[in-house]
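Figure 2 data, in text form.
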Amino acid sequence: MAKKQETKKEVEVPVVETPVVETPKPKKVEPKKPTWEIKDRVYYLKGNKKPLSRMIKSANIYYFDEEKGYERELKYCQNQKTSFVDEMKGDQRLDHIIFRNGTLFVEKEKTVLQKLLSLYHPHKDKIYYEYRPSVIAADEIDILEQQVEALVAARNIDIDMAEAIMRVEKGSEVSRLSSKELRRDLLVFARNNPKLFLELADDENVMLRNFGIRAVEAGILRLSSDQRNFLWGSNGRKLMVIPFDEHPYTALAHWFKTDEGMEIYSNIEKRLNS
């Protein structure tokens, strides 16, 4: 009996198309403009002089508006809601801006005057400044960090470099100081003038200048009365000519780096150490 041959039928699988979902592009977020903080504000005149009263301009002043692209006239009027003349409406009752004993306190309710002084007035940070504790604190932190850096450098500096730096500050008086006195004065100098100290500590010529001063103090070299030449102290023979408008010892320090100067440096060094 013949077997029936079963024929396999191909089963068609339906193809399901997956819809393409477009990812929405992120919207560009515009940076928010800083909001005006409503608070009392204090303004101080710059400099050490604090007159009983000082009036600054409250009219005929201008502010360049970058968004609008032109200068806008400013005026402080008590009865207006803006200090920009082109935005004012109605009568303009001009008011004065007066500092008393170098200080101007502006209440939080006087927003127009505060914005004029803090944002737009052309004399801001020139004649007066706004008291900002956070800015002052940041400046004080920078100064303190600079003092720490200078004190650490001063503590680790060798005695020859200490003498060279302090000679800039004290002159020939340094030669009469003991090593402990020199260390003490160096630390005080680093604390009181950290920026200048760090500049001198990084100055590659400060040691050479000090070397030249020591040579003159010892009589090995002599600076002419017109400060135009360095001479040998023993016979007055001219050693080098000082370039015009240059400090004598700075010029000598640069000259010590030349081929001729290096030989003279070695000669002087032997005499100083003998």
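Caption note: The two ends are 133 Å apart (CA to CA).
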